[in-house]
Amino acid sequence: MALQHSLPLGSYLLKPVQRILKYHLLLQNMVKHSDKESDGYCDVKNALSVMTGIAYHINDMKRKHEHAVRVQEIQSLLYGWEGQDLTTYGELVAEGAFRMYRAKALRHLFLFDKMLLIAKKKEEGILSYKTHIMCSNLMLIESIQGEPLCFHVIPFDNPRYQYTFQARNVEQKREWCLQLKRVILENYNAVIPSHARQLVMELGQSKQEDSALEKSTTKRQLSAPEYLEKRKQERRKSELNL
């Protein structure tokens, strides 16, 4: 028997699907105002647990899809890259622009689950490949005396190739160092105890250090770490004395 509706069934089912991310909020409110001794309280609690899990899963899938689209875009703009398809290096964890010591132009960093990609942006958004370091071969030095916004990334197998980056602000440096430490730990061959992993992740995150960073960054921002400039000057003096 026809119901004489003007729209197809799919149109009526769309609205409940669109609102699925709000169901757990409704259930939270129901749990809050329900009597814990009532017969249906456990059912509402179980429904809340299920819908919270579904909402998390949907948001996670949406995020992964957006990152996958972005990785394809980066791949299409990247010139000079001769490695495998970028999707083989895991999810895109972070991306950002940094000043690099001894480089005039900004460097664009793309951190994947398994690799750190360094590129230079040219005209029309084209990315020129510069280098990359696998996360299993990556070292991070996040504290540089006198340079609160700078950090080093170094390949284990060739420590001479040290890259010094300067973040825009304290927040950018903190977030990147946190993500870099996470992928380094995840790609480390040996099993790391959870408490040791937590200690590593918390390094450089104290309130005292944050305060010192903020005070230092309000005074100055240098294009290169001081100790590297001093080393450069000493090298020049020694060359003149030869």
From TrEMBL:
The protein's superkingdom reads: Eukaryota
The biased composition feature labelled Basic and acidic residues covers 207-217, 227-242
All residue ranges annotated as the DH domain in the record: 1-61
A GO BP entry: intracellular signal transduction
Give me the ranges of the annotated region Disordered: 207-242
PH domain sequence ranges: 85-185
Keywords on record: Guanine-nucleotide releasing factor, Phosphoprotein
Instruction: State what protein this is by name.
Output: Pleckstrin domain-containing family G member 1
Q: Which organism is it from?
A: Stegodyphus mimosarum
